[in-house]
Specification:
Elements (H helix, E strand, L loop, with lengths): L2 H8 L22 H4 L12 E15 L3 E14 L9 E7 L9 E13 L2 E6 L5 E5 L4 E7 L8 E10 L4 E6 L6 E11 L2 E8 L5 E11 L5 E14 L17 E9 L7 E2 L4 H10 L4 H5 L2 H11 L5 H15 L1 E2 L12 H7 L1 E2 L1 H14 L4 E6 L18 E8 L2 E5 L19 E6 L4 E6 L6 E11 L5 E10 L1 H11 L4 H8 L6 E9 L8 E9 L3 E4 L2 E4 L21 E2 L4 E10 L4 E5 L4 E4 L5 E10 L2 E10 L3 E2 L4 H15 L3 E5 L2
Parallel strand pairs: 1-10, 16-17, 23-30
Antiparallel strand pairs: 1-2, 2-8, 3-7, 4-5, 4-8, 6-7, 9-14, 10-13, 11-14, 12-13, 14-15, 18-19, 18-21, 19-20, 21-22, 23-24, 24-26, 25-26, 27-28, 28-36, 29-35, 30-34, 31-36, 32-33, 33-34
Helix pairs in contact: 6-8
Length: about 650
């Protein structure tokens, strides 16, 4: 970036903070009577707290060691309504650190206090030294933790801090919405004219850009420059309510982020880093931990002949290489986009690595075998959806992408229980960006799974006169259901421990024998065979006996409780669950009441639920099928989804009623 030359030619000073014209003035410790009387508003009248204000400033300084650094100041104040809001008094600040001691974020100031009205006077409890903690979370993050004391119903709490960061590729973003309603949120950003950032907006509420102007920025005495000053404000923001079946709440919170796009220093050319996909792809191809890593093929040259041998079928070659990589390098549970090393041999020798280490080696091996494979950039579900515009920092994972017989095939070798075409649950974020290394072009590729998460439960029971159920439970799993079972099974020390865990939270279940089939055979259906005795699941009242034949697998509650929803309903993958129960009952029992079956369908074949109850002689046959035919549903589909699960809960809860003959 030629910052040194820039220094010598015109000199640089720290950007001074001009007093900003705000709609409101906020001073630490200056609490007004109105704030003690603040109440939640709108649809959040039952909220446990209300955020009175949240004000942030982001601006730049310059020093000889790190060049430009950004300074982030935040001042936030809450009114606690009831004890459910006490958790707000415990807060933490993550600080990122690089590989060197000088390359780290620094918390330079922290003020925090609790305010209570007692006998008509305000009592202040400041943050004590004993309430400050530092945790070395991992090699990249240190977390500062704080706990405010004397927090009660009616308290006002606030904290204010300053962070200095040399990591200027991404500025601190700002969220205008949180788990409690917010009265006022403001973010002020001042960026030197030499740095050009592109903003990315998220959420459902329109952020008001109340200022967008050029201001003087004094960098060392005697020299002036300009900075762009933008102010964003949002008022009376509803609380962000957690919902089931989402990617991450960060996808739906009203927010803004910034990524460096280009620089334009004096006496230097305009440098575009991430302004276009072409620029991003070029930098990836040239990066020694990405494109350079894939090109280093000495390890692949020696190993591929022993892996592939004489095989000529393309798909079988892919399968052989895929199996070798996933079985010889253990995933360290870390999602990364760049390899931690510059040479694949180093990872192969260590036999462990991140998702990038593993999947970039997979691409490396496939290309050595003359298979046209490319890296596929992914933003994981917990990282949030990629906005679609050229932004490299929004990705945090990489997979392998192939074209075979005109069809896309996506591979993820981080789990030895993945089969061809299966990727981790975290990577199921609907699309990825494929980087064509040879032609240096890219394209968005759908990552929707082509198979169901399918579970089939087949029960055959005999009900005896002591109201015990005895019989077999045959359970079959496909797709992500099979992956989940395999992961659960392998996470236990032995099968005895696994069987013990099966019985947890299953009242009255005794497992007489257990067998798992095809644990390591991905070409066959994974299944379990259980011989069981079940007690305490049959109720008796007088001469009536009540039984729910779906037992442990029935859906007991509707996950969708809110009247409306602004977010998609994201299941990650389509799914199907079938339960078939055959109940043999005693000769001196007769059916008193058999629930009514039915079929319930969503519009356009988006999903369905059916349940049936049949009886013949001394046998009751029950069948329940739930089908969710899409991985994601729009907010407009929410009411239909909610009603479908309401019906499922109600109908699966219905009991068969037997009458004992006198």
């Amino acid at each position: 970036m030629k910052i040194k030359r820039f220094l010598y030619t015109i000199g640089i000073l720290c950007l001074s903070l001009n007093s900003y014209a705000q709609k409101k003035e906020f001073k630490f410790g200056k609490i007004t009577p109105e704030e003690f009387n603040a109440k939640p508003f709108g649809q959040d009248t039952a909220a446990a707290a209300v955020k009175l204000f949240d004000v942030g400033d982001c601006y730049f300084e310059y020093n000889e060691t790190n060049g430009f650094v950004f300074v982030f100041e935040r001042h936030v104040r809450y009114k606690i309504i009831n004890k459910n809001g006490y958790d707000l008094a415990d807060f933490q600040i993550p600080l990122y650190k690089g590989s060197s001691n000088s390359s780290r974020e620094d918390l330079s100031r922290m003020e925090a206090a609790t305010y209570n009205m007692e006998a008509g006077k305000m009592v202040i409890t400041k943050l004590s030294k004993d309430s400050k903690f530092t945790e070395e979370f991992n090699k990249n993050y240190q977390i500062k933790k704080y706990t405010l004391a004397n927090v009660k119903e009616g308290s006002v709490i606030e904290y204010k801090y300053v962070i200095r960061s040399p990591f200027t590729f991404n500025l601190k973003g700002w969220t205008f919405q949180c788990e409690v309603p917010t009265i006022y949120s403001e973010y002020n950003v001042r960026i030197p004219e030499y740095l050009i950032y592109k903003p990315s907006f998220g959420g459902f509420y329109r952020i008001n850009q109340t200022k967008n102007e050029t201001v003087n920025a004094n960098y060392v005495t005697g020299l002036t420059s300009n900075a762009s000053y933008t102010q964003y404000i949002l008022e009376n923001v509803p609380a962000l309510k957690k919902e089931p079946f989402i990617t991450t709440m960060d996808d739906y919170v009203t927010s803004i982020d910034f990524e460096l796009m280009a620089t334009r220093y004096p006496n230097d050319i305009y440098r575009d880093y991430t302004g276009t996909w072409a620029k991003i792809i070029k930098s990836l191809v040239e990066d020694e931990n990405f494109g350079g890593f894939i090109k280093r093929n000495s390890a692949a040259k020696s190993l591929i002949p022993t892996i592939v041998k004489s095989e000529t079928d393309t798909l079988k070659i892919v399968s052989l290489i895929y199996n070798y990589v996933k079985n010889n390098i253990k995933w360290n549970d870390s999602y990364r986009m760049y390899s931690s090393e510059t040479n694949p041999k180093t990872i192969l020798d260590k036999k462990t690595g991140s998702s990038a280490d593993i999947n970039l080696i997979l691409v490396n091996f496939l290309r050595e075998a003359k298979i046209d494979a490319n890296p596929l950039l992914i933003s994981t579900r917990s990282n949030g959806a990629h906005p679609g515009q050229p932004q490299i920092s929004k990705f945090n994972n990489v997979l392998a992408h192939l074209k075979i017989n005109g069809r896309d095939l996506i591979l993820d070798a981080t789990d030895k229980d993945h089969f061809l075409g299966m990727i981790s649950y975290e990577s199921l974020n609907h699309q990825g960006f494929s980087v064509d290394l040879k032609n240096q072009i890219g394209a968005w590729i759908a990552t929707e799974p082509t198979f169901l998460d399918e579970k089939v439960y087949n029960y055959t029971f005999t009900l005896d006169k002591e109201n015990k159920l005895k019989g077999t439970m045959l359970q079959y799993y496909k797709g992500y259901g099979a992956l989940s079972l395999r992961n659960r099974y392998r996470s236990n020390a032995n099968e005895t421990e696994f069987v013990k865990n099966i019985k947890k939270n299953k009242q009255g279940l005794e497992i007489d024998s257990y067998k798992i089939n095809n644990l390591d055979n991905f070409d066959e259906i994974l299944s379990e065979e259980l011989n069981v005795t079940i007690e305490e699941n049959v109720e008796e009242a007088g001469n009536l006996v009540y039984l729910n034949p779906l037992l442990y697998e029935r859906t007991k509650e509707n996950f969708f409780k809110h009247e409306t929803r602004n977010f998609p309903v994201d299941f990650a993958y389509p799914m199907k669950e079938s339960i078939r129960a055959t109940i043999n009952f005693p000769d001196d029992y007769e059916i008193d009441k058999l629930p009514k079956g039915g079929v319930f369908k969503l519009p356009d074949n988006k999903g369905s639920f059916s349940i049936s109850f049949l009886t013949q002689d001394k046998i009751v046959l029950v069948r329940s099928i739930i089908e969710i035919n899409k991985s994601s549903y729009s907010p407009e589909d929410y009411f239909d989804i909610k009603e479908l699960f309401k019906v499922i809960v109600e109908r699966q809860a219905e009991q068969i009623v037997f009458k004992k003959k006198s």
